Amino acid sequence: MAVRPSVKVVDASNRAVPNVSVTFTVASGGGAVTDAAPTTDASGIATVGSWTMGLTTGTNTLTASVAGVVGSPITFTASALPNVYQPGANANLSGTQNFTSVTIPAGVTVTMTGDLVLNVTGPVTIGGSLVGDCRRLTVTADGALTVSGTVRNHCIDPAATAVPLTLIGKASYSFDGATISSSGDIAIVNDPARVATGSPPASVAAMGNGPRAAATTDRCRYVNTNVGADDIQQNAARTGFPNGDIGKPGAARILECGYAATGQTGGSMLLNNVTVYGQSGADGGAGGAVPGLPSTTGGNGGAAGAIVITADDDIVFDGPVTLQGGNGGKGGDANITGVLGNPGQSVSATSGNGGGVKPKDF
After folding, report:
1. In whole angstroms, what is the distance from residue 248 CA to residue 281 CA?
2. Which are the contacts of 344, defined by CB distance < 8 A and separation ≥ 6?
3. What is the C-alpha separation between 87 and 102, in angstroms, rounded?
4. Measured between alpha carbons, how far is 53 from 30 in angstroms, rounded to an integer?
5. Residue 27 and residue 36: Cα distance in Å, rounded?
6. Which residue in 41, 145, 242, 275 has its CB near the most CB atoms, within 10 A?
7. Angle at 177 between CA 308 and CA 269, to 5 degrees
8. Beta strand 179-181 pairing with 150-152
């Protein structure tokens, strides 16, 4: 709040009493305070450091109390207004941001100037672009997540360390005409607990082929959408002496639907004219022999990244769907030119093995 709540402590003769500790406590609304236990000044006044409203629109209350004082506690009441983020022109955003709703209109680009965490108690709609060079991104919408624009955080510099892109629509999500791109892992989920692997709960049985129930609700929709396009593997393996480094595995692409942990039902996923690109593994580093150790091995190539698609209910392919897996990285070369061993010592150079197309962790 712009005006910080304060109280005045007086004695029975209405004279100010200094050096009295006052405790400010959030009573309702889920807000927060700083410097919650100030002491009164020479005028008997104590002021809280700050009072921030909760994320939910409605009434917030704060109490100020002094032990043993008549009239304590005193209650302050304020109304939390919707904290809406809807830029009308290109804008920058970073850090942890809390809003009641987010709308990025078509034609507007929001650039991440640092890592960004968006916590939204209502819906998130991205018709424009949310982009940043190698910036970690997490969007959590308690309401519906709707994307028809571009969300991208891939790294322009191939030597940079890739960071993940996570989009969570707890109520539902819909991607129509969207492009989602990252050099790191991409996770699009209902349930935050499934960001790491996309695995369904053990209690959910596998679904077979067959007609859909008439009242089936598609909580998760992908239409005319690309996920993972042009996402180049970062951090090529280094040349080593005598052995090259192992290539880094490709990043994962996780599409998950359903939120059984909260008792919601209808976790069906629909895909129509969708392409999901798996990321290739990085090449292994070259090996180079050193004097006295005339044996070298190139590093193995990294495994291709996983494409994981799970749903609590049906997964419906309602049109063209392409799941384009990445390649395993190439094995590193082995070079032994110009290295002298001891007399009679054998000399060997072994290239690394190519990476697998099936990731080990999935």
Report:
1. 6
2. none
3. 9
4. 7
5. 13
6. 145
7. 40
8. parallel
Model confidence at 205, pLDDT cuts 50, 70, 90, reads: very low
Question: 82 versus 350: which is more confidently predicted?
Answer: 82
Owner of token pair 């799941």: 323
- Amino acid sitting at position 188: I
Q: Which amino acid would we find at residue 116?
A: L
| CA distance linking residue 138 with residue 172, whole number of Å | 16
**Token reading at 351:** 């290239």
Q: How far is CA 88 from CA 93, 103, 105, 299, 310, in A?
A: 14, 10, 7, 50, 36
Rg (Cα) of the chain, in Å, rounded?
28
362 near 308, Cβ under 8 Å? Answer: yes
What are the tokens at 266? 């209808």
**Sheet with 74-80: strands ordered across:** 23-28, 58-65, 74-80
Confirm if 336 and 294 have CB atoms less than 8 A apart. yes
What percent of the chain shows pLDDT beyond 90?
Answer: 47
Dist CA 83 CA 337 (whole Å): 66
d(CA 245, CA 252): 21
Amino acid at 173: Y
Instruction: Tell the residue number behind the tokens 């790294």, with chain if given.
Output: 155
Backbone φ and ψ of 298, nearest 5°:
-70, 150
Chain centroid to Cα 339, Å, comes to 48
Report which of 122, 242, 105, 221 is spatially closest to residue 171, judged by C-alpha positions.
122
Residues forming a β-bridge with 65: 23
Cis before 242 (ω within 30):
yes
Q: Which of 303, 300, 259 is nearest to 145 (CA)?
A: 259
pLDDT confidence tier of residue 329, bands split at 50, 70 and 90: low
Q: Regarding beta strands 58-65 and 74-80, do their DSSP bridges make them parallel or antiparallel, or are they unpaired?
A: antiparallel
120-to-110, 126, 142 alpha-carbon distances in Å: 16, 13, 6
Entry pTM: 0.71
How does strand 307-311 pair with strand 186-189?
unpaired
How far is C-alpha 278 from the geometric centre of its chain's CA atoms? 18
